[in-house]
Amino acid sequence: QVQLVESGGGLVQPGGSLRLSCAASGFTLDYYAIGWVRQAPGKEREGVSCINNNDGSTYYTDSVKGRFTISSDNAKNTVYLQMNSLKPEDTAVYYCAGTKYPLNSDYAMGRAACLNYRYLEVWGQGTLVTVSS
What we know:
Layout (H helix, E strand, L loop, with lengths): L2 E5 L2 E3 L5 E8 L7 E7 L6 E7 L4 E4 L7 E6 L4 E6 L8 E7 L12 H4 L7 E2 L3 E5 L2
Parallel strand pairs: 2-11
Antiparallel strand pairs: 1-3, 3-8, 4-5, 4-9, 5-6, 7-8, 9-10, 9-11
């Protein structure tokens, strides 16, 4: 059973930090792209960050650059999103999502594709992040 499970969401103060985890089961992360996508009420779904585990590249949407860091721990088959300097506008349900197939020279993803959630086909159930004082 292919599955992604998010955890780590919660309520934090503005300026605070939070680390989200995305645990994969049924497949190994090697060569796959895994992204974090957020959905806030009244706003468009947005790809926040993505890691291409085939070449190690990481990507971020402009609004989170310098504040968020994505990483993979292949030994734990888990992708993390470290979120620092959180702002109220970061409030959203955060999903992790991955490619259905491993990446290679014929099936590769650069920044635009990796941050486009429409290219990510295996989704978790989401974890709520609320940034409020």
